[in-house]
Design brief:
The complex is a heterotrimer.
Chain A (H helix, E strand, L loop, with lengths): L35 H23 L14 H9 L6 E3 L5 H7 L3 H9 L31 H15 L7 E6 L6 H13 L3 E7 L2 E2 L2 E2 L12 H5 L2 E6 L3 H16 L5 E6 L17 H4 L7 H12 L4 H23 L28
Parallel strand pairs in A: 1-2, 2-3, 3-7, 6-7
Antiparallel strand pairs in A: 4-5
Helix pairs in contact in A: 1-2, 1-3, 1-10, 1-11, 2-3, 2-8, 4-11, 5-6
Chain B lengths: L2 E5 L9 E7 L6 E2 L4 E6 L4 E5 L4 E6 L6 E3 L3 E6 L2 H9 L7 H6 L25 E2 L2 E2 L12 H10 L20 H12 L8 H13 L4 E9 L1 H8 L7 H15 L6 E3 L2 E3 L6 E3 L1 E3 L2 E3 L2 E2 L7 H16 L13 E4 L19 E5 L3 E7 L4 E15 L5 H16 L5
Parallel strand pairs in B: 14-18, 18-19
Antiparallel strand pairs in B: 1-8, 2-4, 2-7, 3-6, 4-5, 6-8, 9-10, 11-21, 12-13, 14-17, 15-16, 19-21, 20-21
Chain C lengths: L2 E2 H15 L3 E5 L16 H4 L4 E3 L4 H13 L3 E5 L10 H15 L6 E6 L14 H6 L4 E3 L4 H13 L4 E6 H6 L1 E2 L13 E4 L4 E5 L3 H13 L5 E5 L2 E3 L3 H11 L2 E4 L8 H12 L9 E3 L10 H7 L3 H12 L2
Parallel strand pairs in C: 2-3, 2-4, 4-5, 5-7, 6-7, 10-11, 10-13, 13-14
Antiparallel strand pairs in C: 1-8, 6-12, 9-11
Classes of the chains: A alpha/beta, B alpha+beta, C alpha/beta.
């Protein structure tokens, strides 16, 4: 039955502890989160992969745009890593870390970027428009905000099929949060009371547009109350905080609370795409706390707490490089799609395909 | 008593007017229903205009030999109330505004003669195909829809085959229905397959006819030729003399046989003249290359060879191509004169009729003397040459024929 | 007993809800006792609790949600309150649903019902016919039923098809068209229907213009012309073969549609007949659409704006004279 769930509790917003969740060297405790190191490795792999993609792009080996998530790996890895089998994941542009942690093979990435016809989209779509809907990883379209309601629909369907204890997690940026379709999707999610977590990263620039031309409210997380969501703020430079807050939101959604909105703050450390040099970002912004590189912060935490030794760290780096190079080499040897071998049919039902030209 | 108008009827698609050729009644005559009282002529036929109802002719408003538009009032019948009422219900629509406005009305007449006026519909300004006016050149059977053309291609028909169809489409064009009706009618008549030669000749004549052709003629005395040939062996026939004469005349005046292609006048380098030779199943027209350089004796020999080849059906298309003129001696069939059609790739055809003994006025002796005379005609493509040029050429040919020692 | 076009749509939805647990209906005002702005779902929320759900005025999210649910195996029917409002959902329909199978190999079996076309006084935003816009984009099937029987069988077909279907139901036909009973089966999807046989001219049309075209054919029959009228039934896929076969019989083509003139179904019919059946034409093919302005409110202006039996007959008459 597709019943709307009973609202079990009024939604409330709760401010997560801010940047001070960052533990200091004085607190000698266990790793800040039990999945900290696992998450770190995914971040390292992602950074290595994306740096390699950038150099391939600059070498003219990639057609079309390249979009990386440099600086946002902590938020993203937490979004993907903490989901379980049966959960729905709707990543967006800067979510390579989440995709990999969710289970997307590296080969999917390199195949798509390097134009192998064996990639998940078979050349029909490119760069970050990738997904495996049957594996619960939705393939985004370019219109930001559109994936929210689609995620809502998947969750409604799962509920009506009698499934339990599942969540859906959709990623978006502060830019995408301003679209009408985002608004409609959020509202509908709360009306339908689906177990949805929306992880919104305010990376302070939508392409070249800074926050003061994007929204006027004091704090984006304040919108959660307006939608009927529970809302949390998050320091996106802090991996432990990301794992904590996002993990907690996922737990709450799974437990049947209203939909959850997490708004993370971290600076985009790349251009909008690799064709953009982001020269519009003023130097003083780059000196802000939210401009810290989450990977460096996490590495520092490892070093400070001696979570692993330098040798292991080095090995991890080398492993990442090896994995990336293997995935690139494999994809480079594969054939490209050919126009005259395509079936050029957009319907699953071949018999209902329209024939504008006479069959020749 | 009410008056019922007599209206010029719609006499056919796109007919806009008709001319009065006969008025059979006068005011005061008693008439019955549907009685033919006026004859009118269109560009297609003569038809009768009938009374709208019975009654008495009250007025005839038209004149003989004048032209009036469709819908014009030709006169009035005085009729009973009942008849007038009945007729009013069936009254035809008033004439088209455009036509009516073209005609100046005169105070003492209902209508004015329209003959001086160019009526829109007849001159292609009224008829439309697909909301575009039908220009004069596409009127009639020359506009063919894709469907008509496809059907014609299927049946291997040409526009010439459709000449017998009166089109009912816009601008009198032939519609597919007209074509199918026509073909259906043919089915009811006896037919057999045309031979290849028949089809070939038909195609050649059709192509030739796309040009404006004309013929001029005169008479020629054959006595000099008849005398000259006595001293030769073999004896060339008059046709060969004509060929030689034409070749010699053209050698001094090759422009007379030039072809107009586009806006270029194309002249042949060689005086190649064809001669009609009868074969078993048709006429062949082999070409004598350099006929001006071929003596009569050689012509005679060649001709004999060609007759033999024709009998064996060994005159190839190559042998018949490339000529600039042809000679046809239809006098051998007993014909006096004709308007033969030049071959499609040539512009001249010289036709020689049968020689007859006729009295001819001799100015010196001031009496009629017998002479063997034949009619000689020259058909020509009027795009390339005019009557004057053709006339001069023919005159020279006649001169040469009447002075065969110059040949 | 007689059944209206609207009742046929309701019956079809009832049957679908009854026979297939994956089906649910999603849209504004469809639920509760209200049963939809046009009563197309009256009584269904009660008979099938939890499966006929009211939504907020969020066409984009309504369709997006339906797409997500379809991705997970359900068969949603989205009711747009008016076709005109589907423009808000254009992105989800064209770019999400229309591209999904081609990009990911996963089809999206949603059905979007669009109450289409004008009625007297409905004005510019409650009268539109949008089949041409949806047919233009790849990945969608566009249905335009013209009869009570087709309204029934084609809606059932639409939900069974794995690909997204835009189902354009005509508001004028809702209560004006009646039939004696509902059929068990209909013609195959994608097959056009010869609604009236003829030999002098072919009218190709669909939806409410079928009624007007048939009336025009009757008028011309009194003048001695037999007009063949072809009902496309689906605008995409468009049954080119049936149209060509009809033009092969008649040689003349008039394509009639209620949508705006630039491009669209009538232009598509003519493009296909001229490029694939040029040799069949005895006269230039013609089309008749609404005028190239927004749809007027005042009944006088509204009826002058769109094709009707009278102006269809006039256009056909001119074409017959060519």
């Amino acid at each position: 039955m597709l019943q709307t769930a009973q609202r079990t509790a009024k939604s409330k917003t709760k401010k997560a502890p801010s940047a001070s969740s960052h533990k200091t060297a004085a607190d000698k405790a266990a790793p800040p989160h039990d999945r900290f190191l696992e998450a770190f490795r995914w971040m390292l792999l992602t950074r290595t992969l994306e740096e390699k993609l950038v150099s391939l792009y600059r070498g003219g080996l990639i057609t079309g745009g390249v979009y990386i998530g440099k600086g946002q790996e902590a938020v993203s890895v937490a979004s993907g890593l903490l989901l379980e089998k049966g959960d729905i994941f709707a990543p967006l542009i800067r979510d390579q870390a989440g995709r990999s942690a969710f289970g997307e093979p590296l080969l999917d990435v390199t195949r798509t970027y390097l134009g192998s016809r064996l990639g998940p989209m078979r050349g029909r779509d490119g760069n970050i428009h990738r997904g495996h809907p049957r594996n619960n990883e939705l393939a985004m379209i370019s219109h930001l905000g559109a994936m929210i309601s689609v995620t809502v629909g998947t969750l409604m369907a799962k509920r009506s099929k009698g499934e339990k204890n599942f969540v859906g997690l959709a990623c978006i940026g502060e830019g995408g949060m301003q679209t009408g379709s985002f608004h409609e999707g959020m509202n509908l999610a709360a009306i339908e009371q689906v177990p949805l977590v929306v992880v919104a990263t305010n990376n302070h620039y939508a392409y070249s547009t800074p926050n003061d031309r994007e929204f006027a409210c004091h704090n984006l997380v304040d919108r959660a109350i307006g939608y009927g969501f529970e809302g949390y703020s998050l320091d996106g430079t802090d991996l432990a905080a990301c794992l904590d807050v996002i993990g907690s939101a996922v737990k709450r959604a799974r437990a049947g609370r209203p939909p959850q909105l997490v708004v993370a703050s971290v600076l985009r450390l790349s251009g909008h795409g690799e064709h953009d040099d982001a020269s519009y970002v003023p130097e003083e912004v780059k000196r802000q706390p939210f401009a810290r590189d989450c990977l460096k912060v996490a590495e520092q935490t490892i070093v400070d707490f001696n979570l692993v030794d330098a040798e292991t760290l080095d090995k991890w780096r080398k492993d990442a490089i090896a994995q990336v190079e293997e995935a690139i080499a494999a994809a480079q040897q594969e054939p490209a799609p050919e126009g005259d071998k395509e079936d050029w049919c957009a319907l699953s039902n071949r018999g209902l395909a329209d024939q504008p030209e006479s069959p020749e | 008593m009410p008056q019922v108008p007599i209206i010029m009827p719609q006499l056919g698609e796109s007919i806009a007017e008709a001319t009065i050729v006969d008025i059979k009644v006068k005011p005061g005559d008693e008439v019955v229903d549907d009685q033919e009282i006026i004859d009118v002529e269109t560009n297609k036929a003569v038809m009768g205009v009938t009374t709208p109802c019975k009654g008495k002719i009250d007025k005839i408003a038209v004149q003989l030999k004048e032209t009036y538009p469709v819908g014009a009032v030709l006169g009035y019948v005085e009729a009973s109330e009942a008849d007038a009422a009945r007729f009013a219900k069936q009254a035809p629509p008033p004439p088209q505004r455009e036509i009516a406005e073209e005609i100046p009305t005169r105070a003492d007449q209902d209508v004015a003669p329209a003959r001086e006026r160019r009526i829109a519909a007849r001159d292609g300004e009224g008829a439309r195909v697909g909301d575009l006016p039908v220009p004069a050149i596409t009127k009639g059977a020359t506009f063919m829809s894709p469907r008509v053309r496809a059907r014609m291609a299927e049946l291997q028909l040409t526009a010439a085959d459709l000449a017998g169809i009166m089109g009912t489409g816009a601008g009198n064009r032939v519609t597919i229905k007209d074509l199918e009706n026509f073909l259906h009618k043919i089915e009811t008549q006896t037919a057999h397959e045309a031979s290849a030669i028949r089809a070939g000749v038909a195609d050649a004549m059709r192509r030739s006819w796309t040009r404006p052709l004309s013929t001029i003629g005169s008479s020629v005395s054959l006595d000099p030729v008849l005398q000259d040939r006595q001293s030769r062996d073999p004896k060339p026939g008059p046709g060969l003399y004509a060929l030689r004469a034409l070749a010699v005349a053209l050698s001094k005046n090759p422009g007379a046989a030039a072809k107009l292609i586009g806006n270029r006048v194309v002249q042949s380098k060689s005086i190649d003249v064809g001669i009609a030779v009868e074969a078993e199943d048709g006429i062949m027209v082999p070409v004598i290359r350099g006929a001006d350089k071929t003596s009569l004796a050689d012509l005679a020999t060649k001709y004999k060879e060609l007759v033999e080849l024709a009998r064996q059906r060994r005159i190839s298309p190559d042998m018949q191509a490339g000529g600039i003129a042809t000679v046809s001696n239809f006098g051998t069939f007993g014909m006096q004169w004709g308007t033969p059609i030049p071959l499609p790739d040539q512009t001249l055809l010289l036709g020689l009729g049968v020689g007859k003994k006729v009295p001819s006025w001799n100015e010196e002796k001031k009496e009629f003397v017998p002479r063997t005379e034949a009619q000689i005609t020259l058909s020509f493509d009027h795009r390339s040459i005019d009557g004057g040029g053709a006339g001069r050429l023919l005159k020279r040919v006649i001169e040469l024929l009447e002075n065969p020692n110059e040949l | 007993m007689s059944i209206t076009y609207l009742e046929a749509i309701r019956e079809a939805q009832a049957k679908l809800l009854r026979d297939d647990g994956r089906v649910f209906i999603y849209g504004q005002d469809v639920g509760g006792t209200f049963g939809g702005a046009f009563k197309a779902t009256k009584g269904l929320a009660k008979e099938f609790p939890g499966r006929v759900l009211n939504t907020p005025i969020s066409e984009d999210a309504i369709v997006g949600t339906a797409i997500g649910a379809a991705m997970q195996g359900m068969r949603p029917i989205v009711e747009m309150q008016f076709a005109d409002f589907s423009s808000i959902a254009l992105n989800q329909i064209l770019n999400q649903a229309g591209t999904h199978y081609w990009r990911t190999n996963v089809p999206i079996p949603i059905t979007v019902r669009l109450p289409s076309g004008g009625t007297k006084g409905s004005g510019p935003f409650h009268s539109q016919s949008m089949e041409s816009i949806y047919a233009h984009y790849p990945g969608l099937i566009v249905m335009t039923p013209a009869t009570v029987e087709d309204a029934y069988t084609m809606l059932i077909e639409a939900v069974a098809i794995d690909d997204p279907v835009i189902y354009c139901e005509h508001k004028y036909l809702y209560y004006h068209l009646k039939a004696d009973k509902l059929p068990e089966k209909g013609l195959l999807t994608g097959r056009a229907r010869i609604a009236r046989e003829g030999r002098d001219l072919t009218i190709v049309s669909y939806s409410a213009m079928m009624q007007e075209s048939l009336a025009a054919a009757e008028e011309l029959a009194r003048e001695g012309f037999e007009i063949e009228v072809v009902d496309l039934r689906t605008v995409k896929p468009l049954d080119t073969d049936t149209v060509l076969a009809s033009v092969a019989r008649t040689g003349r083509l008039l394509s009639v549609g209620e949508s705006f003139p630039w491009g669209g179904a009538t232009a598509e019919v003519i493009a296909r007949v001229t490029s694939q059946g040029f040799h069949l034409l005895d006269a230039a093919p013609q089309r008749l659409n609404a005028k190239d302005t927004p749809i007027p409110y005042h009944p006088n202006l509204w009826s002058a704006h769109r094709p009707n039996a009278k102006n269809i007959a006039t256009k056909a008459r001119a074409l017959l004279r060519e």
